[in-house]
């Protein structure tokens, strides 16, 4: 069986981390005897010069026909003032919406050896193992009407959530929690927002079907603080779209670097896998980016799209082994440290261990 994967390297450091991830995918293919057929397509700012849009129709069609999609990053300051259809972020949002991937899994794990990599005290962060379940196709990112009138100095976005949208993503959170430490923390701002009041009520209804899972509700401001103060207390953190975007970056700092975090976007027919970090234009092309977020996204693809658990564990084991042995990209190292690995060297080390 050949599995067809569309690669969308995108902008900034996207191409570097994607080729690192592909190196690891090839190592998995060789070791376990699988056939992965990869095709690269354009997305983001990288697609605009040749097609006039950040999401060319052929890219979207290829993704819809694929078995899985691996994306690097989108975002290019050159398009900050471009019309919405040319903005790199628009491409990613349209891709998520068209694929119907409403549940975005973002695990944040403190890998042994990285206790001192981040700014927080090792004793507080050691053992952190949480996973965001972020609603991905609703909320402020997609709500209509929306507009900007710069000259009038006025603008509008719409925040709307329906029962069905909350129900389906909540089921994903509770199902995952059952296989973990059986705690769901549902994040909202129900003291202020009506959408959050609906969110809380629907999550309570869904929870009734999972008697073995404990549910707690937390306001988003309190949650932001708790993630820094006591990250180990969290298991599954269920959020609406914007809250999950913000809190997952914070979790990157907790576990040592945003460059470590992978994600899986599920719920439609085709899974979309991408590191949580952005295009990081200021370090693009220097071979100093961390490929681990992209590599762990491949592990999530193997597990969630292909059901290849041993293969996913082999990738995660190779990442863990490299980090335990002291391999560090610049983002993980002490300032001024020498002997850091570049993006390609880190990916080769991990691929070699597989
Ligand atoms: C992310 C990114 C995206 C988001 C951007 C690039 C549209 O920040 O995946 O976290 O906000 O969802
Ligand atoms: Mn983000």
If you had to describe this structure to a student in words, what would you say it looks like?
The structure is a single chain. The chain is an alpha/beta fold and 354 residues long. The chain contains twelve helices and twelve strands. The strands form two sheets. Strands 2-1-3-12-11-4-5-10-8-9 form a ten-stranded mixed beta sheet, with helices on both faces. The longest helix has 19 residues, at 14-32. The radius of gyration is 20 Å and the shape is globular. The protein starts with a strand and ends with a helix. The model has no long low-confidence stretch (mean pLDDT 98).
Question: What key attributes describe this structure?
Answer:
binds manganese (II) ion; 354 residues; 12 strands; binds 3-isopropylmalic acid; two-stranded antiparallel sheet
Summarize the structure.
The chain is an alpha/beta fold and 354 residues long. The protein is built from 12 helices and 12 strands.
Explain the layout of strands and helices.
Elements: E1 2-10, H1 14-32, E2 35-40, H2 48-51, H3 57-65, E3 68-73, H4 88-99, E4 103-109, H5 122-125, E5 129-135, E6 147-149, E7 154-156, H6 163-178, E8 183-188, H7 194-207, E9 214-219, H8 220-229, E10 236-239, H9 241-254, E11 264-266, E12 271-273, H10 292-304, H11 309-324, H12 343-353
Parallel strand pairs: 1-2, 1-3, 3-12, 5-10, 8-9, 8-10
Antiparallel strand pairs: 4-5, 4-11, 6-7, 11-12
Helix pairs in contact: 1-10, 1-12, 6-7, 8-9, 10-11, 11-12
The structure holds 3-isopropylmalic acid and manganese (II) ion.
């Amino acid at each position: 069986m050949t599995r067809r994967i569309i690669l969308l390297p995108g902008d900034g450091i996207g191409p570097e981390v994607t080729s690192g991830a592909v190196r690891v995918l090839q190592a998995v293919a060789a070791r376990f005897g699988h056939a992965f057929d990869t095709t690269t397509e354009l997305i983001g700012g990288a697609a605009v010069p040749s097609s006039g849009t950040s999401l060319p129709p052929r890219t979207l069609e290829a993704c819809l026909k694929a078995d899985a999609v691996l994306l690097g990053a989108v975002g290019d300051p050159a398009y900050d003032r471009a019309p919405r259809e040319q903005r790199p972020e628009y491409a990613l949002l349209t891709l998520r919406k068209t694929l119907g991937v409403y549940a975005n899994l973002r695990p944040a794990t403190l890998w042994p050896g990285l206790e001192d990599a981040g700014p927080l005290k090792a004793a507080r962060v050691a053992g952190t193992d949480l996973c965001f379940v972020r609603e991905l196709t609703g909320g402020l990112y997609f709500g209509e009407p929306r507009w900007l009138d710069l000259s009038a100095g006025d603008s509008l976005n719409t925040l709307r959530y329906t029962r069905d949208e909350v129900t389906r993503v909540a089921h994903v959170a509770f199902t995952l929690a059952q296989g973990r430490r059986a705690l769901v923390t549902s994040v909202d701002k129900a003291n202020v927002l009506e959408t959050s009041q609906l969110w809380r009520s629907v999550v309570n209804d869904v929870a009734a079907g999972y008697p073995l899972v404990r549910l707690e509700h937390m306001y988003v401001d309190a949650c932001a603080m708790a993630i820094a103060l006591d990250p180990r207390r969290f298991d599954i953190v269920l959020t609406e779209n914007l809250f999950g975007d913000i809190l997952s970056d914070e979790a990157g700092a907790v576990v040592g670097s945003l460059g470590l975090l992978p994600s899986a976007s599920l719920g439609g027919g085709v899974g979309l896998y991408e590191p949580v970090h952005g295009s990081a234009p200021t370090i693009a092309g220097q071979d100093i980016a961390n490929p681990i977020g992209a590599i762990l996204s491949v592990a999530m693809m193997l597990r969630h799209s292909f059901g290849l658990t041993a293969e996913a564990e082999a990738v995660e084991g190779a990442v863990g082994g490299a980090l335990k042995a002291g391999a560090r990209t610049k983002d993980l190292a002490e300032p001024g440290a020498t002997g850091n690995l570049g993006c390609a060297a880190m990916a080769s080390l991990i691929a070699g261990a597989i």
